[in-house]
Automatic annotation (TrEMBL), chain A:
Listed name of the protein: ABC transporter permease
Taxon lineage: Bacteria, Bacillati, Actinomycetota, Actinomycetes, Propionibacteriales
Entry-linked InterPro entries: MetI-like (IPR000515), MetI-like_sf (IPR035906)
Its membrane topology: Multi-pass membrane protein
Cited Pfam families: BPD_transp_1
Subcellular location: Cell membrane
Domain ABC transmembrane type-1 stretches: 119-329
Residue ranges of the TM segments: 30-50, 119-146, 158-179, 207-227, 269-290, 310-332
Superkingdom field: Bacteria
Keyword annotations of the record: Cell membrane, Membrane, Transmembrane, Transmembrane helix, Transport
UniProtKB/TrEMBL annotation, chain B:
Membrane topology term: Peripheral membrane protein
Superkingdom in the source lineage: Bacteria
Assembly and binders: The complex is composed of two ATP-binding proteins (NikD and NikE), two transmembrane proteins (NikB and NikC) and a solute-binding protein (NikA).
Keyword Nucleus: no
Main location: membrane
Pfam families per the UniProt record, alphabetical: ABC_tran
Catalytic activity reported: Ni(2+)(out) + ATP + H2O = Ni(2+)(in) + ADP + phosphate + H(+)
Protein name: Nickel import system ATP-binding protein NikD
Sequence ranges assigned to domain ABC transporter in this UniProt record: 17-259
Automatic annotation (TrEMBL), chain C:
InterPro entries referenced in this protein's UniProt entry, alphabetically: BP-dependent_transpt_permease, MetI-like, MetI-like_sf
Phylogenetic lineage: Bacteria, Bacillati, Actinomycetota, Actinomycetes, Propionibacteriales
Keywords, sorted A to Z: Cell membrane, Membrane, Transmembrane, Transmembrane helix, Transport
PROSITE patterns per UniProt: ABC_TM1
Region (Disordered): 1-22
A Pfam family of this chain: BPD_transp_1
SUPFAM superfamilies, A to Z: MetI-like (SSF161098)
Transmembrane feature ranges: 35-55, 96-121, 133-166, 261-280
Protein name, per record: ABC transporter permease
CDD domains: TM_PBP2 (cd06261)
Membrane topology: Multi-pass membrane protein
Domain ABC transmembrane type-1: 94-284
Family per record: Belongs to the binding-protein-dependent transport system permease family.
Amino acid sequence: MVVDLLTDGAARTAEAAPARIGRLGPVLRTVRVLSLLVAVAVGAFVLVAASPVDPVDAYVGADLAAVGPEQRAQIEERWGLGDPPLERFAAWAGNVVTGDLGTSQIYGLPVTTVIADRFAASLSLMALAWLLSGVVGFGLGLLAGMRAGTWVDRVLSWWAYLLASAPTFWVGLLLLYVFSVSLQWTPVCCAAPIGTLPGEASLLERLHHLLLPALTLSLVAVSPVLLHTRQATIEARESDYVAFARAQGDRGTGLVLHRVVRNAAGPALMLQFAALSELFGGSLLAEQVFTYPGLGEATTQAALRQDVPLLLGIALFTAVFVFAGNALGDVVHRRVDPRARREVAA
Amino acid sequence: MNRRELDVSVESAALDVRDLRVAFVQYERGLRRRVVEAVRGMTLSAHPGEVVALVGASGAGKSLFGHAVLGMLPPNARATGEVRLGGRLLDEAARRRLAGRGLVLLPQGGSYLDPTARVGAQVRRAARLAGRRDPAAAAREALAERGLEAGVERLYPHELSGGMARRVVGAVAGVGDPAVVIADEPTPGLHPEAVAAALQGLRRTADGGAAVVLITHDLRGALGVSDRVVVCRAGSTVDEAAVADFAGDGAGLAHPYTRALWQALPGHGFRAPAEPGAAS
Amino acid sequence: MTALDEGVGATTRPGEPAGPDLVARFGRGRRSRTLWTLGLALVVVLAVAVAGQLLQTSAGDPDLPSRLQPPSPVHPFGTDRFGQDLLQRTLVGLRLSLLVGTSAAVLSGALALLLALVAVVGGRVAEAVVGWLVDLFLALPHLVLLILISFALGGGTLAVVIAVAVTHWPRLTRVLIATGRESAGADHVAISRALGHGRVHVARRHLLPHLVPHLTVGTVLLFPHAILHEAALSFLGLGIDPGEPAIGILLADSMRSLSAGHWWLAVLPGLALLVVVKLVDTIGNQGRALLDPRSHHL
């Protein structure tokens, strides 16, 4: 997963932008989100339609020689490929509004079904990684921030910056080699023992298969939370209110719990929700490494095998997923930081 | 250890600071480093029951005095000098341990309150840290003493007016019944009545047995409540004078800068004192 | 406060001048250390690029008798299943990574600057439009957006270069807008506007000088993102043509024989990529420390 660590100040200004939007009224915000979703749909459709790859060739694949021109024409007609792009878009968009995203060509199932099934598998993976990276990252960030300048901070910061530069899939490969190939503690692939369907596997078996992909994802996702929490902690530590708390004799764990944690938690939570977008990108790579049958793997397959309806469906779905993450982040931030509550009320 | 525990005899000063110095290291564009000495020798003592004013122009290093005495300077600062509390020489770590009970800082305003915690929680926490047996009751009492109703306890700092925030800060600082209070510019931007009230509050604190250091640039206000005035200029204390000496045309004032400050006030000659380059 | 906790008590003898003694307690020569790190990182990165360029033609030579050899003095990174030297292939792959990074930095940097200037001097509507565009590009997970663009361009090396190059501007744009808005609020800008100077004049004479340092640093720091995204796309098989030695492809290939214990195929190219990304990141961060000393105070 690639992390945005442009500059500390830059990161803060980048975070300030959603806050500005937050000051718009709820109606305007809804309009904005809807306009963005429509734009995503149009943009994705344009991009996919612009592809020089012939969807019929892609669909037919190796059987190209066995398919006659009549069959080709039949497929084209069924998919409406002869129609002008605008008409095709209108047809597709009309279906999307009614909840019909079309049929996946590679799985032969409705796109909504494929996404629902695959997302359920990805969700457990992402949820585990999200919680793990959030808790560990926040804890270590607090520690680094409170010990800023000491060797603890230096080791933690160095580690976080190093992980931020490490390719997710490479981290996955390393873990795979060490734990699955060399030590044979964890399975080499998939979401369930080979030969069983995920639904038939026991909870323990599924957790066993989930462990390494989740660890890969969280290892890389820890670093932005850690670094931002560290920054927020340092800011809190240098603030007037912490100086005053010290002047009252507040020190150590008590000072951190009463004066620093809450102040650092707001930004960290917002970041962690905004990071859902990065997390999904990471799951694409982790699922590829561990052949984990989630939505990320389906995305890769859809792109590799030119499954246009599925690709479009996934684009729309992930956009909604990202917006939901940002909205949740706003709500939670408002719960944690009373100042944010006022901004919305004003 | 609060006022009752810190055995302060009237002879030894509650607070005795000698030759306090504070230096900062800064980095300029291109990472060139320079050391700036912001406080260059401040000496001041305060006895129980006394209000001592530390007066000087903005940028004279007055606020750093308070932070250095409490051992709360930022990491890129270094302090040297002797600080005695109740006659005992204490290093910064020891002073930090006394903070809140033997020694408190009374700062300027709302930014000194934690924006994410309710007023009540903050005052109760200060009371608990000061070792008060019933923190909730002590907090309620400290707020009531400053004319704040019980409802204020449920508010967040950003919901307070400037004046209320100042009084809450006072309640937080005062709830531990400290032996030494260092009040840092408690009056700027206040109405004249509010200024008088804030200063009278300090006087009452001193009359109750605490030693109060009033850091201010407002000489006239300070004269109304103080017993002695220490004058600082460009980071060092240059003079100490009794309040009674500030009279007439300032003939009783020995130091020319002190006399100049006095004469700069309306009705005493109205001459502006020559300011040397400000230090911080 | 940690610096103070480290045993600096108040016991210093009174009257002693604080200056030189205090200076000695702080670290020495941060400026020269920064310059040295910056120079060294630049030299290494350039050396990698040059080596990759020189090896471009010879790195493909298969040598079947010496296939799948672990690292040795002759082949420091070992050999792959065709007997090709992995170090050579890694260097060629890194050259491609740097190329992708450079084009992304140049294109996205230019786009970010242009959009930021339009947003800052163009009035409220322009600012809203740019803000909306930024949000639009951040609406999809970056990797999904890259896949869509690469798909639209029919895949292949050029498609990846373009996809990576045109999608890395949104965050930098936000940073530049924030900086630009700050300096646009300054008095001399208001005076210039009051004197009747046009928007283009204000943008060129007053905003650009303030934005350039942030742009330079932001562009360098954008490099690592671009490199890692290219590697990710290639790893998924959606990027560089298979057969070309991109790091992502080398690592994807390594998966086939990982269970056979050929660890070097996975570990070493990835490690090399990590080192290059870290070096470029170092260049950006040291540059920032030089331009913005406050970021280095703690």
